Amino acid sequence: MPLTTTSTSTADSVVITLVGDLDAAGAPILADDVERALQRDVKRLVLDLNELNYLSSAGLRQLVYAQQKMNDDVQIVLVGANTRVAQTIRLVGFDQSVVMTDQLPE
């Protein structure tokens, strides 16, 4: 299923909701959203993965890229990863670099 995204902003955070598959075809879509988030002075980048079905190595590289592009003081939160997506993230140790949770932060 092709990746689609929506973004919402608050005073100090950007929430990007991902729906479908984050693979080589979808990675540029997320890259564009991350670039737009960089234009804002945010303290938190939230990636809502509740409707993300699949995460490929190309998609995982895009998550790492997002983390590298953000300032050190920006917290990255991954929300609602399904079992398969969470296993992929944990397999490479990326869960040690971000916050993983089941619910959107307030």
TrEMBL record:
<protein>
    <recommendedName>
        <fullName>Anti-sigma factor antagonist</fullName>
    </recommendedName>
</protein>
<comment type="similarity">
    <text>Belongs to the anti-sigma-factor antagonist family.</text>
</comment>
<dbReference type="GO" id="GO:0043856">
    <property type="term" value="F:anti-sigma factor antagonist activity"/>
</dbReference>
<feature type="domain" description="STAS">
    <location>
        <begin position="3"/>
        <end position="106"/>
    </location>
</feature>
<dbReference type="InterPro" id="IPR002645">
    <property type="entry name" value="STAS_dom"/>
</dbReference>
<dbReference type="Pfam" id="PF01740">
    <property type="entry name" value="STAS"/>
</dbReference>
<dbReference type="InterPro" id="IPR003658">
    <property type="entry name" value="Anti-sigma_ant"/>
</dbReference>
<dbReference type="InterPro" id="IPR036513">
    <property type="entry name" value="STAS_dom_sf"/>
</dbReference>
